[in-house]
Design goal:
It is a single chain. With 366 residues, the protein is mostly beta strands. It has a single domain, classed as YVTN repeat-like/Quinoprotein amine dehydrogenase (Methylamine Dehydrogenase, Chain H). Helices cover 6% and strands 49% of the residues. The protein has one helix and 30 strands. A four-stranded antiparallel β-sheet has the order 3-2-1-30. A hairpin with a 4-residue loop joins strand 9 and strand 10. The radius of gyration is 19 Å and the shape is globular. The relative contact order is 0.11.
Amino acid sequence: MAIDRRSLLLGSALVLCARSCALAGVASEGGEAALVSACRRPDGRYALVLLSMDGRILREIALSDRGHDIAVDRGRGRAVAFSRRPGTFAVAFKTDGSGEPNVFAAREDRTFSGHGIFSRDGRVLYATENDNETGDGLLGIYDAGSWRRIGEMATHGIDPHEVILLADGTTLAVANGGIEMSGREKLNIAAMEPSLVFLDGTSGEVKAQHRLPLHLNQLSIRHIAADAYGQVWFGGQWEGALEASPELIGCASVDRALRLIETPKPMGTALKGYIGSVAISGDGQVLAAAAPRAGRTLFIDTARGGIVAETQLPDGCGIAGVSAHAFALSSGHGDLVREEPGRDPAMSVKLAGTEFDNHLRLVAKI
């Protein structure tokens, strides 16, 4: 009997996760984890690492392939990590290290897009997905216990990437990147249609759908975060000529169209046309936007839309708001930094040989 790649990956993930659980008691330093990230370890293995706020690896879960982002349900002490797009597996685990990870697969005709979010009551998990036959964007809906797929809703665009839940507990915001993909090959750069869509998380009804003007259609909307004022901020990735890059950061709301930040001098080209992640401070007042190709992270006042500070971290992409004013940042060189905008880092460590992936998440409030 032939074994397809999806079955092979899922089987490998199950074996690796079982192995990591068996070793957890030996490898763990104990204590409550504060942060989690996918990474590549010094021996070349892919893994999830749960970290203390001072940068110690407390627990590790092996992965069969590269991971991307992690949906965290802090109130119930659990999380789900998604494989890098086009992904076929996800791993659910308890953040305190108890129990064994649960690995589940995307449907045969779907692929994961690297991101997801829990409903407020923790009953379901929404995962951004692609229909492999039509190219349509979807939110796969999973029972957050059995991890069984129980439904789906359209994202009303193609290439959905990040999804977040807004403060009302029912509205979902979805970043549709707008790129038609075959594997990781981009097929429609000239005719891209990025959008930011607001959906009712129960019915799937569209509350608002915002698109960029035609001259900005090559700005793929990929990562999003909500501020204290009900605005959703986005970080874009420019697919056109670098010298023509517009501003890469903007915001919108259900009742307000997309708009880009205004800066004293153009920033798009200086940021290499690429924002890899965004995160909001604990008080919702400051947005952090990481530009790993430029080694720069910008901090933006969400009330007035202006840049208030900047920090430099080569290949820095992971960001998490860890308190009212502070952020943790990670890099592909193994750096983990904690700082407030405009101030010297309160903590900076390097995990030799470890390469953090694009996203960093807070798993426990401090």
